[in-house]
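Fold this complex.
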Amino acid sequence: MNQAAQALRVNRRRFNVEEVRADFPILQQRIHGKPLVYLDSAATSQKPQVVIDAVVKFYSQDNANVHRGVHQLSERATADYEAARAKVQRFINAAKCREIVFVRGTTEGINLVAQSFGRPRLQQGDQIVISALEHHSNIVPWQMLCEQQGAQLRVAPVNPQGEVLLPELEQLLTPRTRLLAISHISNALGTVNPVRKIVELAHRRGIPVLIDGAQAVPHLPVDVQSLDCDFYVFSGHKMFGPTGIGVLYGKEKWLEQMPPYQGGGDMILSVTFEKTVFNALPYKFEAGTPNVEAAIGLGAAIDYLEGLDVEGRIAHERELLAYGTSALSRFPGIRLIGTAAEKSSVLSFVMDDVHPHDVGTVLDREGIAVRTGHHCAQPVLRQLGVDATVRASLAFYNTQQELDALIRGLQKVREIFQ
Amino acid sequence: MNADLRDLYQEVVLDHSKKPRNFRQLEDANRSAEGFNPLCGDRIVLYLKVEDGIIQDIGFQGSGCAISRASASMMTAALKGKTVEEAEALFQRFHALVTVGPSEGADVASMGKLASLSGVWEFPMRVKCASLAWHTLRSALAGKSQPVSTEDPATT
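Structure:
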């Protein structure tokens, strides 16, 4: 550990869930007269006060367009926007700041790679490989691309526990495979994919890899250089930052080769009606006025996360998951969907004779927020034999008492639907 | 139990969801339509036998939550023997009941068991569950070939 890292460590407060909860104003409220139990962080996470303050400060003190004005406000806005980029670079350990492209979210990042990286490289008969675990946002852009180019989308299967079958995945990687796209953590089941190993398998055959990290960045330290992935995509709002901002990390060698995704202002060096010269990385991919306040808010979220005791936070989440898994497993008539050996922060389940939607409504009246339905991952649920599940998803601000409240809520569901 | 929940999940609603009436495919149906709610995955297929403007027989199949099953079950029970015009009029009253609530002017008493779904209006997220079967009915009566979705602008 270098000196800077050591200094950071000393400054970190030891993880204490009650202290941390106090940082999130939204968690202090009652819903239907009961304390809010927020178990839907995989859909979107709540925001600490420092993130809210950063957005408010931007609009109350620094608001201006970026990369344009010569005036003081534009200088400040630009400096803060670019400082946020530098924070993202450090957060995922990217080699260079120019490898960090701000996008609207994971979905836009994947679409950008599909159209700008995938399309020129994909010929008729070529293949894109994904896994059966994917969120619709890591399925549909590839389907659209394959349709456009006459290519084939191939899907690596999962076992009944919800783990991707690596030998089967490996068999799908052929000389015609142009890209492998896979999630780091499954949003519907919580499976943690062995992405480093998967990148190795693909690279051995010269196949680039995109990782959908939307569910991973809120929970695990991510090091894109150590993963050696070609692209890594995630959203701000799932990692305690604002909505409307996301990150596409791409290796410089690829981003350099890729044509712009959208045309407009800020992505150009010069424009005449005859010829436009595109701007350098990463601006080539950031057409139009970006979501400046959200980028700055994301920077504040990163500062916040890095200020927490990371080991303590991860240990707390692991304990919560084990506690919730054990409590739900003992509950009569409840079946957990997704029981991978490597799991993170998601408790997806079904209850005998009660539809998830009805479970969700009863829990809501107990102040408990869960997601019900297919979680934008219809294919994997169908493969595991269910149409819909109840999903309780965790963040470090959740407590064992909240999981106890969930269990009591499920007992109420049983009473109503006995 | 919470009073709103008791209104939503009334005994008769739970009974229809557990033992749905007319839960079958009609062999001699001359109208049918499929409806789904893409948000929660609920799906219904409705079968009708309509002769001389009268709903002679009606049945449904599919999967969904307690509210959508109970609503489909009660709808089929209420519509058997009704004219197409009466069905449309009942749809309008049912729709008002679950979206606006049992207001003073509404003739809830004449709606029979359908009135037991009045609790839905307190749960805006569940209105689509209660109205899925009815939108599917209208689609079947209109002879539309496309499946109806609760997310179509026309069904809100």
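Chain A has two domains: 3-31+309-416, 53-306.
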